Amino acid sequence: MRLNYILSDLGIGLKRNLSMTIAVVVTIWVSLSLFGSALLAREQVELMKGNWYDKIQISIFLCTKDSGGRGCSGAEVTTEQKNRIKQVIESSPDTAPEGVFGETKKEAFEQFKKLYKDSPIVSTVTEDQMQESFRVKLKDPQRYQNLVSAVAGLPGVDTVQDLRQYLDPLFKALNGLQVGALVAAGLLLVAALMQISNTIRLAAYARRREIGIMRLVGASNFYIQLPFLLEAVLAALIGAVLACGTLWVGVYFVVMQRAQETFRVWQWVGAAETFQATLIMVVVGLVLAVVPTFLTTRKYLKV
């Protein structure tokens, strides 16, 4: 009988506040979808950083007779200068063991021909115009400035190139988008919290006489709160399921079908990251339902 009463009370509550319940579902749907997208954006940025930062090498290009770097004097780098440069690189605490690779003019020219094999520019460039270089692998890609500073001014060094100078602006932009998505999601979650509180407050106020009678006949607080709690949880679960479905559809069509096929060099979020995000979304949705319901109905439990 108690279960029948609770389910009956739940049905009455949903009918009385149908429009408000739909508004709660839509608000939770949108807010959790954006929240889940922000979670995946964070994971994507971390995957990109891990994928590229571990592969980043510092390229130290040596002087040719046509180089204009500050370490050049209008002449080819000498053997003594190359040995000194290599010594500085290998003695750096940031250089990974066996992380120094030399590239001769011939090797650079062969690589150049592979990269531009379909371009007419290949016929205009000779091996002698190529630059010798050192490729340096770091122990920690985050700590690259020390080595760059140590070798940049050495005699025989033309330029020092580090991919971080190109990747960092990209990751900063992605982090900015991620923060923006989290802020927008947070505002929508607050709106959903207020929407649920208002819905439960209106439902409790409309049934305040019934609540008073139940309290007088000895009904427990939890028994009185349960219909309101179920109403909020049901709305939150529907919104969370719709949000999770939206996230999965977005990942499948945007990431798996488009991005992974178009940009194969990147590592993209997949089913594991999406599943983790959806679990967090469901938990957040339930918290949004349970917490305001208990707080809002407490004031109506006193007769």
What report would you give on this structure?
With 303 residues, this protein is α+β, with helices and mostly antiparallel strands. The chain has 2 domains: 1-53 and 168-301, no CATH class; 57-163, Alpha-Beta Plaits (2-Layer Sandwich). Helices cover 67% and strands 9% of the residues. The protein contains 9 helices and 4 strands, in the order ααβαβαβαβαααα. Strands 2-3-1-4 form a 4-stranded antiparallel β-sheet. Helix 1 crosses helix 8, helix 6 packs parallel to helix 9 (271-297) and helix 8 (221-262) packs antiparallel against helix 9 (271-297). The longest helix is centred in the middle third of the chain and has 43 residues, at 164-206. It is elongated. The mean pLDDT is 78. InterPro entries: ABC3_permease_C, FtsX, FtsX_actino, FtsX_ECD. The chain crosses the membrane at residues 20-41, 181-205, 226-255, 275-295. It is found in: Cell membrane. This is Cell division protein FtsX. It is a multi-pass membrane protein.
| Strand runs, count | 4
Global outline = elongated
What proportion of the residues form beta strands (DSSP E)?
A: 5-15%
Run of helices and strands: HHEHEHEHEHHHH
Strand arrangement within the widest β-sheet reads: 2-3-1-4
User: What oligomeric state do these chains adopt?
Assistant: single chain
Function: Part of the ABC transporter FtsEX involved in cellular division.
Subcellular location: Cell membrane
Protein name: Cell division protein FtsX
InterPro entries: ABC3_permease_C, FtsX, FtsX_actino, FtsX_ECD
